[in-house]
Q: What sequence folds into this?
C-alpha cells in the first residue's frame, strides 16, 4: 500500500531506474509475490509508489545479508500486510544493522547520491541530529544502514531537539530490551555445544529483531490512536 499523502506515480521503468534494478527483475519479484501489484491507471498503465521502492530496497538489503530468494520470501511473508514505505524503510535499517560495519566516509556529492536527492545544510544538520551522518572535515561519516530511514524522516516536520530526545528514548529502551533478550537466549543455548550454540544464536537473532520491531510498531500505533482519541475528546482549548 502507499501512504495517504503519496500517490503511486512511477512507471515500471521509472521504478526500476530509481531502485537500480532491471524491469525484468521488478516483474520477476512481482510474479513471486515479493512486490504488491501496481495501481492500474489510464490506458492500463501500471503505477508504482513509495512502498514498492522501499520493498525493493529491503529485498536488496536482505540479499546483501546473504539470504536466498526463498528465505526472503519467508521473511517478507511474516511482515504485517499494512506496512507503508516508512515502516519498510525501518525494517531495512534493522536488517542493515546485522552487518558488522555500516559506516562509510563519503563526500557531499556521494552523500546526496545515496540519499537519492539534493540535501541543503539544514537537512544535513537534521541527519546529524539523528546521528545518521557525522561531519568529518569536508566529508561525512555515513551510517549506510540508517541513511534511507533518515532521509524519509526529513519529510516529517520535527525539530532536531525532538529527534534527539526520541533517539535517546529509543536507545535507552532498546538497550534494556536487548540486554534482557540476550540473557534469555543465552540461557536457552548455554547447555548446547559451542558451535551449535553459535549457529542457533545466529539463526534466532533476525527472528527476534523482526518480532521486536513488529511488536513495537503495533504498540506505537495503539499509543497514537489512544493519544488522538484523548485529544479529540478534549477538543480545542
A:
Amino acid at each position: 500500500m502507499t501512504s495517504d499523502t503519496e500517490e503511486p506515480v512511477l512507471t515500471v521503468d521509472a521504478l526500476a531506474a530509481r531502485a537500480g534494478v532491471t524491469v525484468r527483475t521488478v516483474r520477476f519479484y512481482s510474479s513471486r509475490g515479493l512486490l504488491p501489484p501496481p495501481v492500474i491507471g489510464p490506458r492500463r498503465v501500471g503505477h508504482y509508489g513509495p512502498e514498492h521502492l522501499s520493498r525493493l530496497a529491503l529485498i536488496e538489503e536482505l540479499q546483501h545479508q546473504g539470504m536466498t530468494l526463498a528465505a526472503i520470501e519467508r521473511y517478507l511473508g511474516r511482515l504485517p500486510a499494512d506496512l507503508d514505505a516508512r515502516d519498510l524503510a525501518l525494517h531495512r535499517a534493522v536488517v542493515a544493522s546485522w552487518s558488522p560495519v555500516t559506516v562509510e566516509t563519503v563526500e557531499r556529492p556521494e552523500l546526496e547520491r545515496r540519499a537519492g536527492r539534493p540535501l541543503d545544510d539544514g537537512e544535513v544538520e537534521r541527519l546529524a541530529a539523528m546521528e545518521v551522518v557525522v561531519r568529518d572535515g569536508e566529508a561525512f561519516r555515513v551510517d549506510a544502514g540508517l541513511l534511507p530511514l533518515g532521509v524519509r524522516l526529513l519529510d516529517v516536520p520535527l525539530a532536531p531537539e525532538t529527534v534527539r530526545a526520541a533517539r535517546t528514548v529509543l536507545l535507552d529502551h532498546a538497550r534494556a530490551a536487548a540486554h534482557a533478550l540476550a540473557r534469555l537466549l543465552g540461557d536457552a543455548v548455554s547447555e548446547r555445544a559451542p558451535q551449535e550454540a553459535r549457529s542457533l544464536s545466529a539463526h534466532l537473532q533476525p527472528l527476534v529483531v523482526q518480532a521486536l520491531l513488529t511488536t513495537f510498531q503495533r504498540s506505537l500505533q495503539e499509543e497514537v490512536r489512544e493519544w488522538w482519541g484523548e485529544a479529540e475528546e478534549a477538543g480545542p482549548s
